[in-house]
Design a protein that fits this description.
Elements lengths: L12 E3 L2 E3 L6 E5 L6 E6 L3 H14 L3 H4 L2 H17 L1 H12 L3 H23 L6 E4 L3 E9 L2 E5 L5 H14 L3 E5 L6 H13 L6 E3 L8 H7 L5 E5 L2 H12 L4 E5 L4 E5 L5 H13 L9 E7 H16 L19 H16 L3 E4 L16 E4 L6 H4 L6 E7 L2 H8 L7 E5 L3 H10 L4 E4 L18 E2 L4 H8 E9 L1
Parallel strand pairs: 7-8, 7-10, 8-9, 10-11, 12-13, 12-17, 13-16, 15-16, 17-18
Antiparallel strand pairs: 1-2, 3-4, 5-6, 6-20, 11-19, 14-15
Helix pairs in contact: 1-8, 3-5, 3-7, 4-5, 5-6, 6-16, 10-11
The structure holds adenosine-5'-diphosphate.
Adenosine-5'-diphosphate binds next to helix 8 and helix 9.
Length: about 475
Amino acid sequence: MQKQAYQPIDCLHFIDGKFVPSLDEKTFDNINPATEEKLGIVAEGGAPEIDLAVKAAKRALNGPWKKMTANERVAVLRKVGDLILERKDELSTLESLDTGKPTWLSGSIDVPRSAYNFHFFSDYIRTITNESTLMDDVALNYAIRRPVGVIGLINPWNLPLLLLTWKLAPALAAGNTIVMKPAELTPMTATILAEICRDAGIPDGVVNLVHGFGPHSAGAALTEHPDVNAISFTGETTTGKVIMTTAAKTLKRLSYELGGKNPNVIFSDSNLDEVIETTIKSSFINQGEVCLCGSRIYVERPAYEAFLEKFVAKTKELVIGDPFDPKTKVGALISEEHYERVTGYIKLALEEGGTIVQGGKRPGGLDKGFYLEPTIITGLDRKCRVVNEEIFGPVVTVMPFDTEEEVLDQVNDTHYGLSASVWTNDLRRAHRVAGQIEAGIVWVNTWFLRDLRTPFGGMKQSGIGREGGLHSFEFYSELTNICIKL
Ligand code: ADP
């Protein structure tokens, strides 16, 4: 593995403005997925640490944070974004060590986008206005916006810093206080982020961080705690169901961004080179470990053979290996357990009658680390598990279709509804098809293009609610309507 300029860190909790170990000093090992070696240790929190963090967050709701003017809050949050950029190389190194993703990716997307989340939502504060309603000459109503209270943020391991800041920035912008529980597999950048929040001048207790596991541990304790008013969660659909059941006992407000089995619909009139270039990304970027990745590729029959040939050829060119080698395009999967799960789906594809036309195995010469060749499967029926279940790895299925009606029927025949891509140069068809796909986000002739003002989230079992711009503020704030009789 190439040498890194920054060394991995041990991770403590951050509670009430201080880095602290667990009360019982318990820790767990943090493993580098690219080498299978130990990176360091992480404090293992549970209900006691969550309780301390929630108490600190509750106290901080009425402290100096509440008294800050909007301009002061804007300045502090902008500073968080600035400090993320100042520490970009360090954050990108730690993110790649934790996740196994290539550093070109963490350095060009994860970290800059994390800074932008803070810059964007701090600026957004100034655009928020309150609604007022005059009821004839009888009454004047106006609604004031206030924080929801203590927010629990539960995050996954695939885009650790990007997704944490995507929630933390608007939650803070709306005046809440926070307890964050990053994924146990990727604790390092969240720890640096806590330090950055402190250094930017966010008062003690406003941002708290507790490391630990999900079920029967820190995650469950956060969702159970009666003084946590809302949970924003990104992760697996099955985990979302468990959290909802737990959170129901205290009737918490929930924002969910869950799994997906996103379709790419490619019509034969589209520009094939452009399609291939983007489909390579939408299939294999971040080792396919992005909830927005397109994993069901439907190609109109006249273009099917040409697409498949070029797609396989371009996939073969992807360099797999050391995340710190600038040539690497595909790094390591997150963990052994996940590697087993993803390769289990490849075996299943063969049992279900599929053909592996590319990849499917560990790349030659990479004996350590959870590396897997980008994998393309054909010949599977729409009812197969591999076509219906989220794999969350560099594995896609390609299927031909004949008519618009037929492909729409297949595309929507899923419990998921996160995102989709449609490729066509026929303007009317683009609008017609995009409007009929049951997904929260539909891209036409592109993928992953995001304006942070737009609604982001999934329908069906891919999510509840939307975040982005005003949608985030709606979730992270409460409204009180004041009615004055005139
Ligand atoms: P994965 O299994 O791929 O890690 P999860 O959806 O389980 O994905 O994990 C996303 C986040 O949810 C992690 O921070 C994890 O610790 C947390 N988590 C998992 N199970 C629970 C649970 N029962 N309650 C609260 N948080 C949980």
